[in-house]
Amino acid sequence: MSPHRLPTPQRAWDEMVRGNARFVSGGPRHPRQDVERRHELTHTQHPHATIFGCSDSRLAAEIIFDKGLGDLFVVRNAGQVVGESIVASLEYAVCILEVPLIVVLAHDSCGAVQAAIDGTAIDAAPLPPHIWKLIAPIVPAARKVLAEGGGSRPADIDAELVGSEHLRNTVADVLQSSELISEAVAAGRLGVVGANYRLAEGTVVPIVAEGIDLTG
Question: Helices 111-118 & 139-149, crossing angle to 10 degrees?
């Protein structure tokens, strides 16, 4: 693929799926990681996808999707929580770099999700203020799962369900926070996929999508 000819949103997602399949099977190609590629990117970049993911050390996007230098524009924070700098970075990728795909990437056994779950307890120990401010947007997902499950304690909350609910909320927040991004999706120039990474299997499982056919 020419670096100046970006794929459609669907083709970009399909290639991400193929790259992840290579990683899962133990046969990654490690493409575009040589000296020539490094030199090629000295003055330009044309990534074909943006990853907005959790900062967890096990969530290395280029490895998970078997990509190389210049392939992915990556934005990360703990728990993939939407904020002003996150939205600005995503808008830069869409408007300036013209990426056709945003993947919001969550994962199981997320420390930020667990902290939000623990924070639902009335007697929860206080967290440092900056950490609490970061994870606070995840708490509504934890409370919703708790209410729907009929439980009353953090131990009753299914962390996987909270992670999936928070992932859906995050995709919705991105679209609601940015007219630029939502208009690009409506125009067919951009697709957005919310997916969960399974740590043990290495698989990326899509949960929600806009502008992408997940059944294709």
Answer: 60
